[in-house]
């Protein structure tokens, strides 16, 4: 079976999964390399990096950081380097941009989740494959760490077509309720 099979991921053999993952990673790499910027993310922060002409100063660049929009444009250029709707809301007050000596602009966007892409009209990455540095996870307080671990688990479950932690909890509660009330007929019931 080829690695481009339409078989669900969880029914693939380990070899098929590895080939599938390798193909997907290369496709993502090519799509991301074609973007007019590069980006990375760690827990709570998405960093967008744009190459700028040598000698560019802050006054030469128009950067718009809004709750759901990012725009970067050289004031001397007719078209923006990037402009579009962000994948998710950002904390505008906690987000910033800088121009570094190595002639690149960085925008640091504060966000509570993993992003599959920066701008909604650009190609996505597979967020289920993100493995945060354990030292970063251990730096988080208990509630935040629990939230991030739950988010990672739910992303992996969704990718495999399996129920999320919330869906599993609802199913468990339903089973308990059925056991407590065997006199009730649930055959026609629909739950959402």
Automatic annotation (TrEMBL):
| Polar residues bias spans | 1-16
Organism the protein comes from = Tremella mesenterica (Jelly fungus)
Question: Could you say which residues form the signal peptide?
Answer: none
Key words, A-Z = Cytoplasm
The record's Gene Ontology cellular component field reads: cytoplasm
Question: Which Pfam family is one of this chain's hits?
Answer: CS
Compositional bias per record (Basic and acidic residues), positions renumbered to this chain: 17-31
Q: What does this protein do?
A: Required for nuclear movement. May interact between microtubules and nuclei and/or may be involved in the generation of force used to move nuclei during interphase.
Q: Where is this region: Disordered?
A: 1-36
> Where in the cell does this protein reside?
Cytoplasm
GO BP of this protein = protein folding
Gene3D superfamilies (alphabetical): 2.60.40.790
Q: Where is the CS domain?
A: 32-119
Instruction: Say where the protein is mainly found.
Output: cytoplasm
Protein name in UniProt:
Nuclear movement protein nudC
Query: Which GO MF terms are attached to this record?
Result: unfolded protein binding
């Amino acid at each position: 079976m080829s690695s481009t099979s339409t078989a669900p991921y969880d029914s693939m053999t380990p070899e098929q999964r590895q080939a599938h993952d390798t193909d997907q990673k290369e496709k993502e790499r090519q799509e991301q390399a074609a973007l007019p910027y590069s980006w990375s993310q760690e827990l709570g922060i998405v960093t967008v990096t744009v190459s700028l002409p040598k000698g560019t100063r802050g006054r030469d660049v128009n950067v718009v950081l809004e709750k759901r929009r990012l725009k970067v444009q050289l004031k001397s250029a007719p078209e923006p380097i990037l402009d579009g709707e962000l994948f998710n809301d950002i904390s505008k007050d906690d987000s910033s941009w800088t121009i570094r000596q190595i002639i690149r602009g960085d925008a640091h966007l504060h966000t509570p989740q993993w992003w599959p892409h920066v701008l909604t009209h650009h190609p996505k990455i597979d967020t289920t494959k993100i493995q945060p540095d354990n030292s970063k996870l251990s730096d988080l307080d208990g509630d935040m760490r629990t939230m991030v671990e739950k988010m990672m688990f739910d992303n992996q479950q969704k990718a495999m077509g399996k129920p999320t932690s919330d869906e599993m909890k609802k199913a468990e509660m339903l089973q308990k309720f059925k056991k407590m009330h065997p006199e009730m007929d649930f055959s026609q019931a629909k739950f959402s």
